[in-house]
Specification:
It is a single chain. The protein has helices spanning about 1-10, 15-35, 35-40, 40-65, 75-90, 95-120, 125-145, 160-165, 185-205, 205-215, 215-220, 225-255, 265-275, 285-305, 315-330, 335-345, 350-360, 365; strands spanning about 150, 170, 185, 255. The chain is an all-alpha fold and about 375 residues long. It has 18 helices and four strands. The two termini are about 50 Å apart. The chain has a single domain, classed as Orthogonal Bundle (ABC transporter involved in vitamin B12 uptake, BtuC).
Length: about 375
């Protein structure tokens, strides 16, 4: 039993294992309730296609929250980044137009992040207020410059940038009814960025600084960490990745609309928190964010495909989020092994076997009790 408890403790320390288990259980339920949909590859490629932009944003938000801050402006950055890409594509002739658009989008995202970082790190504005104001402001800017209209990306599918970022990689997934099913390129980008960001957070001095700042910024300063500069860098990174997600979204749907990204705020934050990142800062779980994004992104389609009314989607989301968070807490505090031991004890008869377990089965326990001295011979 000691070995089992040791295994449970070791297993619970694997990063993201709790939320990965919830995702696996969720897909098992979906497969059982709707096998005609969830035993085919196309539904999973659809998830990869739609979830990737949110996942990319969630990776950056994990860093920001780990540092004890928050960023509510990223939906507006998604919209403005998409507009900058479309504007350059439609106004700059030649093969470099889309690539210049990508560069402009990332530059604008970095600029918005820099402004947020300056307000938070140097002016002392709470990040929740600074970024909330930024969201309203930059959404307003986007609507003004776009004149409130959607803009089509005519001919974008013929450009190399389309294949690079949102094309389909053939030959990896099995065909469905004789029709090739390609792996979305944005899913590969999201996975690569997940691996890269995991190494940055867990194996690089920048990630170490982020966790120290989130735990205690005063101690971080004593250790020589430039807290203000690190915070600015975090918000710049957040802006760049949100703009990149906006470009991917715009490429994927072949059109820009001024309010794109508006529905990303709560799903992205939910993915980060159910993944195990602490809202208080100091602890960030990149792998948990990865699985959390797929949980949130799969729920609506899974519930509807299972034949349940769409009115149940929000209720199911709440239940799954609650279960994921509770499981993360139990695993993080090492209490699963204790509960399994209690269950084992409840299943064992409390008779002679219990006494023999103490008296003879556990020699170590008995040896810890000092023996009485022998009586005098006299």
């Amino acid at each position: 039993m000691t070995q089992i408890r040791s295994f449970i403790r070791a297993f619970s320390k694997i990063e993201g294992v709790a939320v990965a288990g919830v995702l696996a259980l969720l897909y098992v339920v979906f497969i059982m309730t709707s096998p005609e949909v969830f035993t085919k590859p196309r539904i999973y490629t659809s998830f990869m296609q739609t979830i990737s932009p949110q996942l990319i944003i969630g990776l950056a938000l994990t860093f920001v929250i780990t540092a004890g801050e928050i960023d509510l402006s990223f939906p507006a950055v998604v919209a403005l980044g998409g507009f900058m890409f479309v504007w350059a594509y439609n106004h700059i002739d030649g093969a470099m137009g889309p690539w210049i658009g990508l560069a402009l989008a990332l530059l604008v995202g970095a600029g918005i992040g820099w402004i947020n970082g300056i307000m938070v790190a140097h002016l002392g504005v709470p990040s929740i207020m600074a970024t909330l104001a930024a969201q309203f402001f930059w959404y307003g800017v986007t609507i003004l410059v776009a004149d409130g209209k959607s803009i089509a990306l005519t001919g974008i599918r013929d450009e190399p940038i389309y294949e690079v970022f949102v094309g389909r990689i053939q030959g990896i997934l099995p065909d469905q009814r004789g029709v090739p099913v390609g792996l979305p390129a944005q899913a590969v980008w999201a996975l690569a960025m997940t691996i890269f960001m995991w190494f940055i957070l867990n194996r690089h001095k920048f990630g170490e600084a982020v966790m120290f700042i989130g735990d205690n910024p005063d101690v971080a300063r004593v250790m020589g960490i430039n807290v203000e500069a690190t915070r600015v860098q975090l918000f710049v990174m957040m802006g760049v990745m949100a703009a990149f997600a906006g470009v991917i979204l715009t490429l994927d749907i072949n059109v820009f609309f001024p309010t794109q990204g508006e529905g990303y705020l709560l799903p992205v934050m939910a993915a980060v928190f159910i993944g195990g990142t602490s809202i208080a800062g100091g602890v960030g779980v990149i792998v948990g964010t990865f699985f959390g994004a797929y949980i949130i992104g799969s729920l609506e389609a899974g519930v509807v495909a299972s034949g349940i009314s769409g009115y149940w989607v929000q209720l199911v989301k709440g239940l799954v989020m609650g279960a994921s968070i509770i499981l993360n807490i139990l695993l993080g505090e090492g209490r699963i092994a204790g509960y399994s031991e209690k269950l084992r004890q409840w299943g064992v008869p409390m008779g002679g076997s219990s006494g023999s377990s103490y008296g003879g089965g556990n020699g170590g326990d008995r040896a810890s009790i000092p023996e009485a001295p022998p009586p005098d011979a006299a």
